[in-house]
Amino acid sequence: MAKIVSITEHFEHFLNDLKDSFWGDLEARTKLTWKRFFESESERLRRLYTACDSYERGPRQAGQYRNGYYERDFVTRFGTLRLRIARTRGKSFLPAGLAKFQRRAPEVAMLIREAFLRGISTRQVGRVVATLTGEVVSAQTVSNLTRDLDRAVKQFHQAQLHDEWAYLFLDGVALKVRRPAGRQHVQMLVAYGVRQNGTRQLLGFLRTRGESQAHWEALLNDLYRRGLKGDKLLLVVTDGCPGLAAAIQTVYPRAAHQRCWVHKMRNILDKVRKRDYDQVKTDAQAIYLADGLRSAQAAARAFSRRWRAEYASVIKQLERDLPELLAFYRFPKHLWRKLRTTNIIERCFVEVRRRTRPMVCFVNVQSVDRIIYSIFQRFNLEWKNRTLRVFTQAA
Asked: What pLDDT was estimated at residue 104?
């Protein structure tokens, strides 16, 4: 039996089709009208400048010869306008109202920046935007829009800090950058702070060529300059980099220093034979899993006695680093798990690697700063009203 469709339903379909066709056609016509207007205005400006029309000879002055056109994309709420901009040998003629007209597309510009910051290449971003604007945005246009982030990056580096941070976690992550000599690694040094009330923030980052004492001092001195004097700083947790340890003594000598046990375990086990791996791991873990400082020191002595004959260099390094490996025992027991490693900042690096992996290699160092800033700023906004409850528990 055929379905009976009411007149009202027919009329609703008719109205919907009419709206779609009307507004779709109106948008296309509007876009075409603006395109013609701006191209005509560009041509008019060149004609006034050269004082001659097409195929006419004008005054022979340097730079005033007509030199055809170049195409450029402009993102607007009506979609992407690809305009033919008139030019002479020394000048191009962008219509005066074009920049203001272009600023009426904040949503599209935000989409382009967000897609770029999510790890999508500039060329792929253009294709994504095409699903909304109906036309592919060039990679150059995407690059131009993402450069707006440079101002935000500068503000982040200059923002003042209150001297209220109790725990400072420091670590670095390596990223690839394309250079004329080939792909090279750059090191991103990062500072993560936690207040005593459990609130946290990524405080700063610095792009360097390595992790020497001078590089780390540059980051720590920048934090100091911005207001983190260290008067309330209780503990600095690091990955064990020698240059970083020396930099801490220079800038924040009164704060206790904790070396990360995850990094230390990795260093120990890298030098152990396969047959001893499991037992060495168990014995080493007994040191930082002890129920107190004295028990940990006893476990360390037992570890040294058992493995000194086979792994003398490992034992020597462990005994040298032991005071900084056991610094977390000075603090309340509920904080031990958080304070004995840099895992709290490594989780941020997981996001950095995930977001940058699709890019394979950064085109320039400025793009590295933009990506890192965007990731850290997002974390800071998410953490603004959230605390690490373990830091507020009673001992």
From this structure: 44
155: which residues sit within 8 A by CB, 6+ positions away? none
pLDDT in tens, 166-189: 999 999 888 776 655 656 677 889
- Helix (H) / strand (E) containing 367: helix 365-383
Q: Which residues contact 317 (CB under 8 A, 6 or more apart)?
A: 267
Euclidean distance between CA atoms 128 and 116, whole angstroms: 10
pLDDT digits (tens, 9 = 90+) for 177-226: 665 565 667 788 999 999 998 999 999 999 888 889 999 999 999 999 99
**Rounded to two decimals, what is the model's pTM?**
0.68
Longest distance between any two alpha carbons in the chain, whole Å? 96
CB 256 within 8 A of CB 330: yes
Crossing angle for the helix pair 312-325 and 293-307, to the nearest 10 degrees: 170
Alpha helical stretches, state H, 118-171: 122-133, 139-146, 149-158
d(CA 167, CA 328): 11
**Cβ atoms 341, 279 nearer than 8 A:** no
CA distances 120 to 75, 204, 357, Å, are 18, 24, 10
Q: Residue holding tokens 């780390």? A: 216
Residue 339's pLDDT is: 95
- Residue pair 171/317 in contact (Cβ under 8 Å)? The answer is no
- What 8-state DSSP symbol labels residue 54? T
* CA pair distance 295, 328, nearest whole angstrom: 14
- Give domain limits for the chain: 65-146, 164-392
- CA atoms of 330 and 345, how far apart (whole Å): 21
